[in-house]
Amino acid sequence: MANSHLSTPSELFSRQHKPPRVPNLIGGSFLDSKSLTFIDVINPATQEVVSQVPCTTDEEFKAAVSAAKKAFPSWRKTPITKRQRVMLKFQELIRRDMDKLALNVTTEQGKTLKDAQGDVFRGLEVVEHACGMATLQMGEYVSDVSSGIDTYSIREPLGVCAGICPFNFPAMIPLWMFPVAVTCGNTFILKPSEKVPGASVMLAELAMEAGLPEGVLNIVHGTHDIVNAICDDDDIKAISFVGSNVAGMHIYARAAAKGKRVQANMGAKNHAVVMPDASVDATVNALVAAGFGAAGQRCMALSTVVFVGDSKLWESKLVEHAKALKVNVGTEPDADLGPVISKQAKERIHRLIQSGVESGARLVLDGRNIVVPGYESGNFIGPTILSDVTANMECYKEEIFGPVLLLTEVWKRCFYIYHIWCGCKEISDRD
């Protein structure tokens, strides 16, 4: 396919399809799938169908793996300095088209343009890291570890590797995966989230423009069936996954049973502990940014604040700062929060908020009824704060993955333990 200079998927394929269809990348060619099943890619702010992504057929998947397997012998023998030069060109092209990539991320995922640019930039940093792979690939040599025995280690590529990506960082997480893998001499099968496929296709186009040979990087699309195919295929030697606990445990168990190496970055429930002597302004700013940035849709989002002492002293400040955040479509320059990814995600977040209320939590800021003028059908949720949360509540146990901050308290006993851990002097009962 002729280089399109990073048109969005809808621009790339509007001549052939309405709505536009996202292609697979197999053996160096962007190919329309023969699948009879396509999934709508929906702009979460407008509900507009941006494009359609195929459920890749079994034959297409096997062709992608075959292309990666065929490309591996020559790619692994390519001098590492040459592989590095591809990455050097790749990072240059990402910088050139960062604004287009960010706009695609905002269109498909909903996050603000500022967040989307950060998404691309953090992935770019990994590409820059891969540019120094020659040093990172150095082995070790130790002479005379025993009488007449020297030892040495060498680092060799595994072969065909695969990456399975989530929706929340459409550029960064694919860039966590394939640049390092291919620079080490592996070939790669990338499966983007079916909700946000466009950035991966655009990045693949850039990688090929940078000089990545045919078959070294391949892209397939789909849901459960394609994930299982990746887990089961004997020619795929390693899998990298980022996503939910349920999916990660399934992938780890199924792929490990086939003898594959698996790394799985799954869900989280992140806590911040706030001591009574914390700086109020600095702490509140940090809590609001960590809790509501990216609409809470990141595994490192702060979901729970543990106050040592009375949380009510902090509530008014948190509510004041959270209310000042602007909820809007991500392309608006003043937007602080965009929509969540889907109507189903919005409904789940609403349900978890309500379960907290029904379990006895106090709803000190409710963002469920927010309406963005002109985007009434968008999946918007405003900053929400629940106080008096306890560890037995569903909202505490579950990863909410939305702009919801939970406040809870611990008292003197935990304060004593904290001081003991920190090596502080004994404190009196009045502290």
UniProtKB/TrEMBL annotation:
Start and end residues of each stretch annotated as Disordered: 1-20
Keywords assigned by UniProt, alphabetized: NAD, Oxidoreductase
The protein's Enzyme Commission number: 1.2.1.27
Membrane-spanning segments: none
Domain of life, source organism: Eukaryota
Entry's Gene Ontology molecular function annotations: methylmalonate-semialdehyde dehydrogenase (acylating, NAD) activity
Gene3D superfamilies from the UniProt entry: Aldehyde Dehydrogenase, Chain A, domain 1, Aldehyde Dehydrogenase, Chain A, domain 2
Presence of the UniProt keyword tRNA processing in the record: no
Record bears the keyword Transmembrane: no
Biased composition (Polar residues): 1-13
Aldehyde dehydrogenase domain segment(s): 31-410
Entry similarity comment: Belongs to the aldehyde dehydrogenase family.
PANTHER family the record matches: MALONATE-SEMIALDEHYDE DEHYDROGENASE, METHYLMALONATE-SEMIALDEHYDE DEHYDROGENASE (COA ACYLATING)
Protein name stated in the entry: methylmalonate-semialdehyde dehydrogenase (CoA acylating)
Organism lineage string: Eukaryota, Viridiplantae, Streptophyta, Embryophyta, Tracheophyta
Gene name tied to this protein: ALDH6B3
